Amino acid sequence: MNSHPLRQHIEEIIPLTDEEFAYIFGHFTTIYRRRHQYLVQEGELVNKEFWVVKGCLKSCFFDKEGKEHILQFAMENWWVTDYEAFNNRVEATVSVDCIEDCELLYISYEDREKLSSEMHKMERFWAKKTKLGYIALQNRILSLLKDPAKVRFEKLLKQYPLLFQRVPKKMIASYLGVSRETLSRLYT
User: Fold this and answer.
1) Which of 38, 94, 99, 134 is deepest in the core (most CB within 10 A)?
2) What average pLDDT does range 11-28 have in this prediction?
3) How confident is the model over 53-67, as pLDDT tens digits?
4) How many CB atoms within 10 Å of residue 64?
């Protein structure tokens, strides 16, 4: 269990004993999903937060015209769910879909709350992950509002070069808020 990727991920922020990790890990369930399977769908209640062991997913919504808007990609060591639905116990407003076959761990809302109240370390871990997620979201919004498409493309390519090998260009375009044709011009 010392080398489990979840333990390594948590220990980037907080140290754990073997007993602590065994207890934490006991609150997670492993699941496998195929490409194009949903973990979360708009309109459903969400009781799980997912951690990606292997694979790639997208968090998205569809506007009234049926156009897909991608909010987030999630690859190995990333967390994903509809956070408003998960935390506020309301229906999902976004969907989470597997782009590749995936191996995931999930924790229920109740178990996450239980671990947070029982273990100050895990409360600190999730607080830090929430802060980092908020910062990333703020930077993404600012980039969408102020940066030209070429700059957004270059930032994404620099930050996540492997994403471009794993995700269709149509999805990259949706994430960047540009057309497929614009993305093609940026690739040159």
Assistant:
1) 94
2) 96
3) 999 999 999 999 988
4) 5
Q: What is the pLDDT of residues 112-170, one digit of tens each?
A: 999 999 999 999 999 999 999 999 999 999 998 999 988 998 898 898 889 989 999 89
Q: What is 5-117's CATH number?
A: 2.60.120.10
- Give residue for tokens 């407003």: 93
- What the block records as the tokens of 181 is 């044709």
CA dihedral over 121, 126, 131, 135, signed as positive or negative = positive
State the Cα–Cα distance between residues 50 and 98, nearest whole angstrom.
Answer: 12
**Helix locations, the chain, DSSP H:** 5-10, 18-25, 83-88, 109-118, 120-146, 149-159, 163-166, 169-176, 180-187
Domain extents for the chain?
A: 5-117
